[in-house]
Amino acid sequence: MRVVADENMPAVEQLLGDRAQVRRLPGRQITRADVAGADALLVRSVTPVNAALLAGTDIRFVGTATAGTDHVDVSWLRQAGITFADAAGANANSVVEYVLCAIAETDDFLERLLAGAVVGIVGFGHVGSLLASRLEGLGIRFRAHDPWLAPGSVANACSLAEALACDVICLHPALTDAAPWPSRHLLAGKRVAALHASQLLINASRGEVVDNHALLARLQAPAAPQTVLDVWEHEPRIMAPLLEHVRFGSAHIAGYSYDSKLLATQRLVQAMECCGLLSGASVSGLADEPRQWRLDSAASTADAIRQLLASAYTVSADDQQLRAVTLNVAPAQAAGQFDELRKHYPLRRELAGSHVVLTTATAAYSEVVTALGCHCETEVR
Ligand SMILES: NC(=O)c1ccc[n+]([C@@H]2O[C@H](COP(=O)([O-])OP(=O)(O)OC[C@H]3O[C@@H](n4cnc5c(N)ncnc54)[C@H](O)[C@@H]3O)[C@@H](O)[C@H]2O)c1
Ligand SMILES: O=C(O)[C@H](O)[C@H](O)COP(=O)(O)O
């Protein structure tokens, strides 16, 4: 079995073992010639997968280690009889922790939400619904909009206008041009103009969901909202003035926890096993280091949440990195640096699934710990 895989996908060799020969390539540069003699192709979001790349090749399986599939011509793959698998859900918790950190690090939005302000979630798939359940656990109100889902399957369902009027707006739709509810430039024109100074807008979906020119114009005008962008139109060529005007910007890394990347590779290998492409014994999962954090003191619930989130991740650190390497350089160099940040992203572990030790001074915060998906341990002194 011959596999061509994006160089930025962890553990492919370990999980495939001696069942496959793996050739690694930079995702943006994978060509038809590269895949011509291979049986399977494993990509990330930066490789367009379509007839131009695969028609007439031996490829029988395509897996994308991503939730978004807008880079894949799924209907052509189906027509061509090529099995396709994505990894939707594998990085949902990583994105949710990014969003919660963005909220916790921006002014007093966390305090306002704990006091009754509302989060508007657009897109109620793996990320949007997990965000909703974390917010609910923390006692934070939310409303959600997803017109593609059956009525009744979206908690606290609301219209798009209602979601965009909330205090914090979190964008999590798949990128689609499909009628009647395309999400490309879902936030554009009057909807961007209506954003106001007491709102926080977070986009960790796809850059094209927001009209970046319209957003820049809004951020340059008086009473602008706070904005956090993980994704940008025309990545890796991002609009430098927009980065200068957002509160936090990052290089499309919301889903880049080590845990989520590993899980995505595991999902794709399982999919190859399920469709009978891989023979031989399945390689067992890789060893997981135990993760433990402590909460020794906290002045309030908001403080406890902020400390716990920051023990695993801070958006501000990624923001500083992105500004340092992409501002005040030529656009082509900035684009290269954007990709380099993604390629050499430091190891980041998720908070959820870890153990948090509480002391007698912090025992009151056990519900917060559980709401963030952690296991709670109380230290007996
Ligand atoms: N920044 C990152 O690192 C990162 C990580 C994971 C996912 N993503 C992006 O976020 C998106 C959501 O991830 P997911 O795992 O929840 O995907 P998902 O496929 O589980 O859910 C996507 C949801 O978007 C909804 N949707 C589509 N068009 C919509 C519209 N016009 N209005 C409202 N909702 C709409 C769909 O009905 C679906 O429920 C992905 O498609 C991907 O593009 C980004
Ligand atoms: O759709 C997704 O899952 C994310 O956007 C994904 O994490 C992007 O990372 P990439 O595939 O570009 O490395």
List its salient traits.
alpha/beta; binds nicotinamide-adenine-dinucleotide; six-stranded parallel sheet; single chain; globular; Erythronate-4-P_DHase; EC 1.1.1.290; binds 4-phospho-D-erythronate; five-stranded parallel sheet; pyridoxine biosynthesis; Rossmann fold; NAD binding; Erythronate-4-phosphate dehydrogenase; 381 residues
Protein described:
There is one protein chain. The protein has helices at residues 12-16, 32-35, 51-54, 74-79, 92-105, 109-114, 126-138, 160-164, 189-193, 212-220, 240-245, 258-274, 301-312, 315-326, 331-343, 366-371, and strands at residues 2-6, 21-25, 40-43, 61-64, 83-85, 118-122, 141-145, 168-171, 200-203, 226-229, 248-249, 292-295, 355-358, 375-378. With 381 residues, the chain is of the alpha/beta class. The radius of gyration is 21 Å and the shape is globular. The mean pLDDT is 96. Among the domains are: 2-86, 3-Layer(aba) Sandwich (Rossmann fold), CATH 3.40.50.720; 91-249, Rossmann fold (3-Layer(aba) Sandwich), CATH 3.40.50.720. The strands form three sheets. The chain has a six-stranded parallel beta sheet with strand order 7-6-8-9-10-11. Strands 2-1-3-4-5 form a five-stranded parallel beta sheet. Strands 12-13-14 form a three-stranded parallel beta sheet. The chain has 16 helices and 14 strands. The longest helix is centred in the last third of the chain and has 17 residues, at 258-274. Residues 67-68, 88, 91-92, 95, 122-128, 145-149, 172-176, 181, 183, 186, 204-206, 230-231, 252, 254-255 line the site of nicotinamide-adenine-dinucleotide. Nicotinamide-adenine-dinucleotide binds at residues 67-68, 88, 91-92, 95, 122-128, 145-149, 172-176, 181, 183, 186, 204-206, 230-231, 252, 254-255. It is an enzyme of class 1 (oxidoreductase). Its main location: cytoplasm. It comes from Pseudohalioglobus sediminis. Its EC number is 1.1.1.290. Residues 13-302 form the D-isomer specific 2-hydroxyacid dehydrogenase catalytic domain.
